[in-house]
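Pasting as-is:
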Amino acid sequence: MITPPKRLRHPPPEGQPQRSGSAGSAGFTWFGLGAWRQWPRDTRDTLFQLLVIGWTVLPHLLHLAPWCGVLTAVVLLWRAQLALGNGPLPGRWKVGLVLVLAVALTFWTERTLLGKAAGVTLLVVLMALKTLELRARRDAMVIFFLGFFLVLTHCLYSQSLLIALHMALATWGLLTALVLANMPVGKPPLWRAAALAARSALLGLPLMAVLFVLFPRFGPLWGLPQDAGGRTGLSGTLRMGGMADLANDETIAFRIRFTGVPPPNEALYFRGPVLSRFDGTEWQPSPFAGRRNALRPLDLRLAGAPVAYELMLEPIRLPLLPLLEATPPDAATAAQLPDWTLWLGSDLQWHTDRLVGERLRLQARAWPAFSHGQQAEPQELAALRDLPDGFNPRTLAWARQLRAQLGDVDARTLTAALMAHIRQASYVYTLQPGFYGRDAVDEFWLDRREGFCEHFATAFVVVLRALGVPARVVTGFQGAEPPDADGFRVVRQSHAHAWAEYWVEGAGWQRADPTAAVAPERVRASRPLPPQPGLVAGALQSMSPALATQIRRAWELLDSRWNQWVMGYSRTRQFDLLSKLGVRQPDWTDAARVLVVVLSLAAAGGALWAWRDRRRQDPWQRLQGLLAARLRGIGVDALPHHPPRTLAAMVRGRHGAAGEALAASLEALDRWRYAPGAQAKLPDRQWWARLTAEADRLRRAAPG
């Protein structure tokens, strides 16, 4: 660990015998209740710092190569063993060999030594290896600064509330270790150093808040982790069975808050990828639907009253916005994302010019009552009736029989007949439908009849196309949880859903959700099938389901507010704040000016406080000066830096037995100040009165 220069241990060169110490003394116990109190300060402080380093590195081990975590753990345990055994630190050639191995493994796994992943990997390894080179204060400072920099790198991967709490605790631990390194006397307890570190950090909070609020934002401040693991549960393609696993994903996809009366649950369809090409196994989007075509106007007709809502979207790693159906193009919506290009495709899907790899927040309006696609090109409709050859022959034969039974009826009648068949044929809505083979629709529709939403949607569309009806699969999210204390409703990955759309001449595209026919509570009550809980969640759920739900909602409420007030603090909100402060038409230069003024005032206040503090005198130092002056009056050559125990010896040497009472008072002061459990406050006035009386008595008794 890091200690002041007088206490830094210089290990003997390799090959020389290890020095003896308390670590090797007989009867010394390293483990057991309270054993850590017996450790020498070097050992205790070293182990504490290794614990802090391990905690700081821990989140990185979730996204770095496995060898990095193994190597880091081995090095830290190696250093801990050396601290416990009071052994010499390894030679530089051993450390260099491990470093070369780490560089080689980094290049092997990342194919480069540059970039985010390679840089963070090397930083983690260097942090661990530097603990094997604590030979001087310079090495100690390098470890501290590496640790603080490593804390910042967590923002490259995640900026969630959980990571923020982890970073705060890691920073507190590093500050505590830094305080310990600058406490050279005795063996200060860890809690005292931790308290001092916490007070120091709290003193910096006002400055941190000012910088956060006023520092100019030249772009999206929190848009850094562009490739940081956002998941949607959706993808640009769909296979039967591909969405069933999403029901086990309870992470949040987005939050939505309605202004005014919210729409019913069965109207909460959030549109994602629209899939119209089928090769017998996989559904893919049309190559033309997402293109921006200025010559072809959007065929969207709105009816009824609009619903205003606010959406906070998590990173989904798809080039789209899963907005509520139907959200039409609006200049105000686009203005909320000035750095993005958004457009509404002919398939009613909102497209973006890039992958959504950052958290977005916007306000929009939707019309739950709408129609679209009344005017469709014949070749487009023909493509939406197409089915691949050689797949699902039994289902196609079943569809031909149904067409023969119903005769020449329209698309709505055919759809109603399919819905009635689903209700009457004992289909089962389940998360575990099992594996389906090459002719998956045949197996599902005619044999097993067990599936998740994508089984029903894809089979439904295949049958409609076999009946001659243009149809396609739409994926997205359906439903939402009840509103929290802030009015936001959570939409989870488990709300991912697939439904069907079919085309009716003169009316356009119509939604058909076959899942609602077999499991109406899934749509009407927004109740997806419950996932299998983990070990801890399962135990808590079995003990108290209400408590588990309440804890989860409370945490998500905190996370929502973190996203709103911290992660969502954008350039627009900063300019709104400056406007409230009286700045007309603010820009980033106004924010910079206000920040400079505030920091200048803070610097002036700090300088004034430092000047005043410098003029103050420590009360114990003042007492030492008074004691020295008083004792010089009785012939004792006392100086202000002499401790009370030294002064007591000087009194006995000058006055002998006559000064015993005064010497006893000085020794009592020494115990009061320096003994274990000593008092930080000054002694009371009665002690000073007794000491003054004894000094006056000796002065009067002195000859001459």
